[in-house]
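Let us work through a complete example step by step.
Step 1: write down the sequence.
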Amino acid sequence: MQDGTFSKTRNQEIRNLTPCDGVRTACPNIFVKLKEAYHPPLGDSAIVRDYETLRTRREFLYSAFGEDRVLFGSDYPNSYGVATIAEEVGLMKRFFSTKSRESAEKYFWKNAVRIYKLKRT
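Step 2: predict the structure and record it as tokens.
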């Protein structure tokens, strides 16, 4: 993975995950954290920095789970040395710049408030 893109095998593995299409109805208590964006794919040590590759991975999960089942998490300390929190937030801001403001708010805070039953003070 010299150029920062997934191998054909890894892309095929991701496409094979498509059965999670029914996850929204079959498993209503499962949510996904759209993070770990800069981590290397399995079996590879190169860090993915190509935005289109990262966007494709996020879009797959976002489509599978829907805007009401995704949320932000820093993934710290697992991301330490891979990307700063500012880089991770910036990546997700870029991803959500093509979505509605409501969708971005759900991702960055509203879903967490609802899922964890947090009280605003």
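Step 3: interpret the result. The beta strands are 32-33, 70-71.
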